[in-house]
Every structure is written in C-alpha cells, then in structure tokens.
Fold these 4 entries.
Entry 1:
Amino acid sequence: MKTAVIGLGSMGWGAAISLLKAGFAVQGCDVRSDVLTRFTEAGGDACTTPASAVDTADVVLIYVINSKQVEDVLFGQNGALETARPSTVFLLCTTMAPSATTAIAERLEAAGMQVIDAPVSGGHVRALAGEITVMASGPQEAFDRASAVLDAISAKVFRLGDRLGAGSQVKMINQLLAGVHIAATAEAMTLAAKAGIDLKTLYEVIRVSAGSSWMFENRGEHIVSGDYTPRSAVNIFVKDLGIVASEAERAGALTPLTATALSLFVEASEAGLGLEDDAAVAKILARKSGAILPGMEG
C-alpha cells in the first residue's frame, strides 16, 4: 500500500516515520526544504507539492495547521485533487471546526474520494512511536481500506460512527480540556514561583497527586526546565480554543474557562511568544506577577 502525508510538522512527521517503520511506501510533502531533506534521509520520498505526493497513493493523511491550509492542499493549485485517483482514502487529521470538516469532506466525496474525519491527539513523542489516539468517523469502506495505516500510526482508534464531523467534535472537546489544563499549569507554576516554592520539587509532588493532569505532567516539565522549544506552539491553541469558543457560541453553550484560557494564549501570541511552546503562556503570568521562571531573565 502506498501512502502520502501532507504536512510534516511534529504530528505529521511522527505519522510518516511510523508508516515507514511499518513498511509502507511514504511520500511526504512540506513547504520546508530542510524538512524534506530530513525526510529523504529517513527513507521517505520527498515531494514539493500535494499533487506530486498523492498521484500513486492509496491513503492520504492531511496534517496541516488549519482548515484554510487543508482547502489549499486539497483544492488549490497543485493540490491533491489534481492527481488523486478515484476512491483514494483521505484522512483529515487536522484539528478543524466540525462545520469546516463536514464541508471539506463533502467536496472530497463529490470528487469521488473516500474520507475519514480523523483528528489525532497524543503529542509528538507518541506520534513518533506510532501510539497516538485517533478520534475517527466515516464510512465503513473507508475504514476497511485504511485500517493498516491507522494501525501503524496509533495505539487507539475510537470509531465514532459514520457521520463525518463527529471526530472533529470530539477533538474539539479534547482541545478545550487541553488548553484549559495548560493555562492552569501555567497559573499553578507561576503562583509557586511567586511563593518561593522549588518548582522541581512541586512538579514531582503534583504529578503523582490528585491535582495532576496529562498536560501538567508534560508541560509542567517544560516550565521547570525552562525549555520552550515548540512541540506544540502557543498559536496552535489560539486556533483550537478559538474553534471551541465559536462552536460553543453557535450551540448556545457557556464556556467561561475556555474564554479565560483563550485570552491568555492570545496575549502570549501578541507578546511575540506565538511560535514558542504553548507552555510559554506561563511567561505572561510570571511577568504580570513579578515572578521569575526558569528560562526567563531577571
């Protein structure tokens, strides 16, 4: 089976490497030449356009940043639909508003393609290990054809029914929790620093206590070490919590914690931290509190 991965960021790279390890032929597409060079060195077939990446693919995984980029790589100039064969299976792994996912899926199906709404979670380490979680929905035939690919990139695939958009709805709720937990981690670490608590000790205590979360355990370590190398950037949660806020408003649901966390991520982005690790929102709270975190200048 031949596969293509469009977008070799942290999650797309992990998926592409996992597919190579599983013995798939993988064509990878990205706008960054250095990433394509690394992909070639890893054993993949590097492509500069989506059209050239998918011309022989049976299954295509889309891992770009947002719905606009998904539309561009699918339907734009040198986009995937220029060369994709009929019934090619497209896995939409990008986090998008459910309404955007549905609209894009309908256009793909109208063009004779098969689609799985397949947003993912787990971070870059699990992606490299082929152990991400996939929140997937779509027709059975598409799942049957893509099952080996899904097995190669994931530890768990949640089947959420046939309705395209259901996967994106569940991912939206996951991102609500993830964003709020990152903001809460930043607040907790900043308060601890201001109170004079040793952050490494605090981290070791909380990570095995009731107040912990997956995000505290993961992002808390970034704050303790002062390492804001972007695994997932601040701007990702500006986008994702923005999706939560807009979809909640459309549904008439109240999301006050989302609103607070989103404002913190927006402030961090506007302060020039948008491309740093999302744990960098702690720097905003620290500056306002007069606290010094590891990696910050006094």
Entry 2:
Amino acid sequence: MNFFPPAENGIKFCQKLGDTQVETIHKIQQAFGDDAMSNLQIKEWYNRFKDGHTPVDSEPCSDRPSTSRNENVIEQVRTLVMEDRRITVRELANEIGVALDQYIQFFTEDLGMRRVSTKFVLKLLTMEQKQRRLEITQDMLDNANSNPNFLNTEITGDELWVYGYDPKTKMQSSQWKHPTFLRPKKARQVCSNVKVMLAIFFNSRGVVHHEYAPQG
C-alpha cells in the first residue's frame, strides 16, 4: 500500500481526529518547522481529506498528480484562469493533473497573480454611463486648467437619510473620574426610528446651503 508523504499524513491524521484547520496548521508547523507547507497548502490538503478524496492510498504512485512545471502546463493554467477567474486550485488540479502544492508557485512566480475578494460597490455602471462620466470629467478638467477660478464657481450637492437624533457613543459620554468617585452610569440607547432626508449643497469653500425635506 502506498502512503502520502509525512506532512500530508499528518494533515490527514489531524482531520480524522476532528482538529480544525487552525489547529492542524499549528501542529504541522510545530512538527516540521521551516520545512512545513504554507498555510494555503495545508488548507487545501485538509479540505481534500475532509471531502473524502483519499483514493491515492491504494493507487500506484504513477497515478499521483504530476509535479512538473513547464511552459505547457503554465499556459494551460493561464488559459483556464482567464476563462473562469473564480476557478479553484482543486478544480485546476483535477483538470490538469498537477499536484496541489504546485499551483501556489504557478500563480505567484509564473503568472504573477493572487486571489482577492470581490470589491462591493454601490452600483455597477454601464459602458454608456462610464463614457458619459469620462466626458464630463474631461470637460471639468479642461475648464479647471484654463481657468484657475473655475472650481470656485461650481456648486454640487448630495442627499442622505439622517436620524432624528443619534445616541452619544461611549467616547462622547466619557468624563474624568476621581478614584473615590463612583463610575458614571448611562442607559443604553438606540438610534431614533425617525428619519428625515437631508439635502446639502457645497462648493470649494464649504457648505453653502442645507435643508431637511418635509415628512412624506
């Protein structure tokens, strides 16, 4: 029977005992020191064992994933990633057949990529909206370059919902206390349920006008 290398066996052992990923990472790093896998590699193997993907125990060594790094394999990785930016390392390994721990080097050293979280924005603009914004911005920039006082003549505005009142924070309610005094107390408060629309207008020197919209 063929077995995993010692590090992988250790990860499998920890997972079988019910250790969490964090506990497994700590034990592997403690056992192997500087020779330990990276945290990401340990997590990949941990999830692999957790999903029950352990048929390698009884398969010939020749059937284990390849560890080769060459231009052909790198190009395959690049193609698959460009087709689907959300593809996982495990999906790449199943598709190409290269060992999981090789993909860290593919991304960081060969492709210069790293995995990042999606950035949430208030609104996704269409291409027409983006083009319109570019044109307006360019016009404003041209005007500002030709007329130094241009921005002083511009007024812009915004609107937002505000509460009727906001409770003071702990910092705002803090006060100096002598050791012989009792600590001051304050009942916990929540924001007012009453909200009003505030419209505010300002120029380069500050706020020029604001008003609260009537209820309804």
Entry 3:
Amino acid sequence: MPELPEMETYRQLLIPRIAGKMVTGVQIGREKSINVPVEEFSAAVLGVRVRGISRRAKHLLFHMEQNRVLVLHLMLGGAMVWGTPEERPDRTVQVELAFGEHRLYFIGLRLGYLHLYQEEEASRLLQKLGPEPFDPAFTESNFCSLLGKKRGYLKTALVDQSVLSGIGNCYSDEICFTAGILPQRRLESLAEEELVRLFHAMRSTLSEAASHGGYMDVPLFQGDTLTGGFDPMCRVYDREGEPCVRCGTLIARVDFASKKSFSCPGCQH
C-alpha cells in the first residue's frame, strides 16, 4: 500500500505536469471508485483547472477551481500512470482524467477511491487523522507524550492513522529497525530514550524514502527513474531470510495483531 513517501513522490512529480492545467476529458471505468454519480463527477471537473496538489497522510488532494477537491486514496494495489493515449497502461483503468494530449490514469482502485468534495467538507473528513510526521509543530516531546499514553504493540500504534499519519506496514518496520527496537514491543515497556530514538528514526527513514521515490515499483511515466528507488534500500521489510545489513543475523518475519512484520532478532530489542 502506498504510504507517505510514495504519495509525496506522486505529489512532487505531478505538480509540474498538471498544476494550473484544465481537465479536458473524464472517463469513469468503475463507478464505485467515485462517490457521486458519473454525470455529477464529470460536470464538476470537466473544463476546470487544477489549482494545486497537496498530501495529507496517505491521501493526495487535487485542489480544483470552484472550491472543490478530489481526494485520492490508493489503498492496496492502487497506482497512477501519466502518459499519452498510446502509453495507456495495460491494466484496467478505473478513472481517467485528460489534460490535453496527456492522461492521468488511476489503476488498481479495487479498494481505493477518487472522491469529490467541497474543500471544507474534505478538511472536516481529514481532521480525524493523526499528526503529520514532518509537521514542525509535531515535536519530539509531542511524539513521546503521544505514544507514552498508548497501550498495545508499537507497530500497531505506528500504523494507526488516528495516532500518526502516513505510516504503514513497510515504514513502521523500517523505522523500528533504524531505532533498534522490535515492532512487537509493548508501548508501555518503552523507555523515554527509546521513544526519542523512534521519533528521530521516523523522521530520517521517511525523509530518506521520500527522497528516493518510495518503495512502489510502478513508474508514474515513461522514463521515471525516481519512483520505487527506495525498494532495494529497504533494510528489513519483505527481506525475510536475508542477512541483516547491520549485524548479519537473518531477517525474520513475525506475524502479530493480524499484521506481518519484518525485523532483525539480532540487533533489534
């Protein structure tokens, strides 16, 4: 599932391509991927310009003229492809937005969605999300206080979007590895020094992943060399049976709380 670094990569790559441009065509291949009737969706975006693109947690927000916003959540298996009609992906396209000669194809939206809202409504719906890891107002002290009040498994808290925004299965494991702490640790057992390590591990891991295009391997456009660049750099996620880059112990997969998790039993404690 795309997480904060993947959605941030999309945001950065799409801004120079569609910001300020007008939607010249709309095709809906799966009505369940949108939240209003097809005719209403098309009428709301056709001939309307994209004012800008922002990100909130794992959501991408396409801010349109007329105080409307398209809220995208790719969920599991979703992706976007930018290209000409000749470069249309060889996959089922749920939503297609045309910008002159180019198209933005939304694929894999079996669980994901592209919903149309008024700006105020979208803001209200997103208020339930937890703080953004890179928000300057979200300090080390805030992080320690937030997790220090929780109970349960560390990984469960890290991936809970009402606690923290944008972290999922992949980066929760990578953060725990960087901090040298097992993801199945109980929150109530963590010392303040360990919480501080987790805070800085969160910032450094997400920053590194975003700068290398995240771990998803579906290029946004032909010639895209950024998207997916972090995948070979993952230290533990999906690396079961490989030697740890830090101590050489074989990476183990441990499933708990209905989640798969990867860690090094040798140098994570």
Entry 4:
Amino acid sequence: MGWLKRFMGFEAPKPAASSQQTPGNLPFGLGSGRMLKLDPSLKLLLDGHSELEVPAQEVVWAVGEVDLGQSVRLARFYMEDEDYWLQVVMNGASADDVRDIILFGYYSVLPINSDAELKRLVGPESNIGLPYYEHEGYEFVRQWGSEEGQTELTPISEWVSSPETSYRIQHLSMLYARETGLTERREFLLLSVEEDEDGNVSLTTSVGVTLQSTDFNVI
C-alpha cells in the first residue's frame, strides 16, 4: 500500500473505461501535440495582479482526466516544458461542457522521502487545510471544506496519457484562491501531495489564474 493510501486510509478508485479521454470530448481541440497560444495582452493585463508568469505559447505533451462524479470532470493538459499545465473543469461528457479554465504554473516540487516527512508537511501541525493560507505575502482562502479549523485534503485519482505511456497518479489536494482585483479573474494556489505508480511521493505547489476562452487559441 502506498504512502498516501496509508496516510488517509483510502484508495481512490480507477475511473470506468467510459470516462477515459477520447478526441471528441476534450475541450477546445486540445490534446497531445497541440499548441496553446496565449494572447500577448494577457501578460500585460495580469502584471501586478498575479504571480503567474504567462507564457507566449506551450505545446501539450500529456493529458490527464479526473472523474469527480455527478458528471463533473477535470481535463488537465501538461505542457512539454513541464513548467505549466492547464485545467478545464467540465460539467458533462461533451467537449462543450466547460465551466472553468485555469492556467497553472509549477511554483515548487518537493520530494517526500518518509512517512514522518509527509505527516510534517500535510498533517495536523501543518498550515495546509486551514481556512487561510499565506503565500508570497498574499492571503488565500480555502475553497474546499467547511470546517472552521483544518480540513482533510481531498483525495483525487488521475489518469494521465502521453504519446509514450499511460499511468495513474494519486493526489491529496487543497485548493485556495484570492481575488486579483480584475473582473472574473482569480488567482489560485493548489497544494497537492502526489504519488505515482512507482511509489514516488512529492508535494507540488502550483499557482494559477482564471482564463477566458478568448485568452488563447489552439493550433
């Protein structure tokens, strides 16, 4: 049994075969080998409002899918340079069922080498899971859980496919957000303990920002 399963006493189920990605149900025509080209004005718009450095363009390498149940799913697109990934929240099986779009950039990846280190980083004595979390001088508000104090991280099972292989990643995640001062654009902080099928565990911190469908083209 992996560290995360021992830590939570939980094993996330494998999604049913019907929920796997097919070219017809991925949004915006995205998929492995497609290029995400961002509007140059977006970088100027976000300057001073978000910590995320928006790239000019990125090529998708791998595609991840998370089935959250009740027809809600996450489509995740991981870029070739490994610095960025795009998450699209979907309300149904159709490629048009888009609810939210967030561009994330990896802030840090910290390998975890023991159960004790895992407990120290995300256990009861850590700040992850509290209603508020400070990052780079900004205060973010917890988006998951209604407890007044610390809440448990959310377990997520993700299937990732690239041109070379397919694999499962187990996550224990907590999402935070803050207002940027821009209309309909929030900044997000996603903290996630991730375990791959080989048992390698790391704590990743990603900073994201809301995108509109007019912010990018897929070519």
